[in-house]
Structures are given as C-alpha cells and as structure tokens.
TrEMBL record:
Gene3D superfamilies: P-loop containing nucleotide triphosphate hydrolases. Its EC number is 7.3.2.7. GO terms for molecular function: ATP binding; ATP hydrolysis activity; ATPase-coupled arsenite transmembrane transporter activity. It comes from Desulfurobacterium thermolithotrophum (strain DSM 11699 / BSA). The keyword Hydrolase applies. It holds the Pfam family ArsA_ATPase. This is arsenite-transporting ATPase.
Amino acid sequence: MLSKKFFFFSGKGGVGKTTISSSVALSFSEKGFKTLLVSLDPAHSLSFVLEKDVGGKINQVSSNLFAVEIDVEKEMKDYLKRVKKEAEKIVSPVILEEVKAQIDLAFYSPGAFELAILDVIYKIISENEMSYDKIVFDTAPSGYTLRLLSLPLLLDKWLDQIIKLRQEALKYELYSDLKDKRKLTDVYSEDPVLSILKRRKTQFETLRKKLFNLKETLFGIVTNPAVLPIKIAERTVKELEASGIEVKLIVFNRFRGKSLDEVEKAFPKKKVIIISEREKEPVGIKELRKIGKELLFQFM
C-alpha cells in the first residue's frame, strides 16, 4: 500500500468512505508522505470529517496533509465553457450560436457529470503528481464511480473512430480540390479539429494508463457489514473488474457482530480490512488517526 501513488475509495453513500479516505490520507502524511486528499463527492463531508473548512482550492490541513473539495457543478460549467471555446475555433460563424445552444443542452445529458469529473481527475493528476507523494480520491457513490471509470476506455475507442472519420473527410476534400497541392500529412497536421481530437485522446490515454496501472494505483471499496451495502460492494467489484480495473482492497467500516470468515467469503482473493464501530461519529484529526493506524496495521 505504501508503494502506491494514487488511491481511489468508493462505496455506497453513507458507509463512511470519506472517513476512510481521510484516515488513509492522514496516516500517509504522518509517515512523512506529502499527501493530497481530493473529494469528488457532490455531497461534500470532507470539511466536517476533518473539522476544517477545506473549500474548492487546495488547503493545508496539517504539516504534510493538503485537501480540496471539488465543486462538481462549477467544474461542469467550466468544462462546457472550454468546449464552447474550442467550438469557436472550428465551427463556422453561421452556425456557431446553434452549436453553443446544443452544448448548453449537453449540460443535462447522461454522462456529462462523469465527463467533467474525468477532466478534473486528469487535471489534478497532471498538475500535482510531481508535487505530492500520495494523492487520495474520495469518490462519488458507487453508481457514479462505475460510470466514471468505464469512460476512459469507451472514449478512447470512440475518439479513434471520430479521428478516422475526420481524416477520411479531409482526404476526400484534398483529393477533390485539384488546386490544393498540399501533402495529406500537412492537411492532417494543420486541421484544428484533428488537433483537438488527438489532444483529448492523449489525455484519456494518459489517464487510463494511470488508472489501470496496479503498480501506481489502488482501488478500495468501503462497505458496512449489512446485506445491502455488501451486495452493492460485490456488484461494484464485479463491474469495475469487468472494465479492467482490479480492486485490491475491501474495507468493512463500522464492523460489528459478524464473523470475519463470513465477510471474507464474499470477497475471495481481496485484502479485507475491518474497522470496528465507534461509539460516536469519528471526526477530527485525533479520531481519524486512530482509524488510520487500525487500517494500515491490518494492511501491512
């Protein structure tokens, strides 16, 4: 666990994944690793758990621990602004306003949230991986996370097809214009649409390699010892692994009353960690430190 760079924790809403993410990040920071804790959950509880107003910019929590709560709504709006700016470069002024109206409609389309968050993850990793030893992501609840993490591979394939279609269109235009003496390679390199598509493809490829690299990245599922959370955790593991993302860690938070053998049977070949139930909600550095020690001790 200490050898990894990126950590993603997901789970059904209400199982305590923010508590676990924060405890892990705090433990890393107190072992001397400069650590960034990132909340991607729209229902932010990071400030509550840390007992510190985190906010939308990276803030220092303790000597080696930094945190940020991503404003998903703002990120979606910023993402659409960037798309509009790119459209201005490549779309005819005659239809530009109509295209912008269609982009506005996309704000409410399925997948818009996940696509905006993917952009955030790429931005955080590309801008901060050299500045931090560890980056811990407290993700949105399981359903969002499943859609989110299946996107890079789908988008990669989709962009391949779009790039191919664009190249075919450029080739047809070039060979149809007898006066145009440019080489096809020059046409490709000068085309702003291809440039944008290829840049996006490179971004998604970079992100996919990070997410799928088991040497760098660890995915953990947080659950509770109850029937519904366990079933959701089992489904999440299956669907993530069907997408090519291996889940190594299962954290049973608020554990009480069940046999360890019973919960381990639900997740064969996974590292199962048990965090005992507390008498009161664990908030603040002191309580998170206790959970972090309990968690890391079992992982070693």
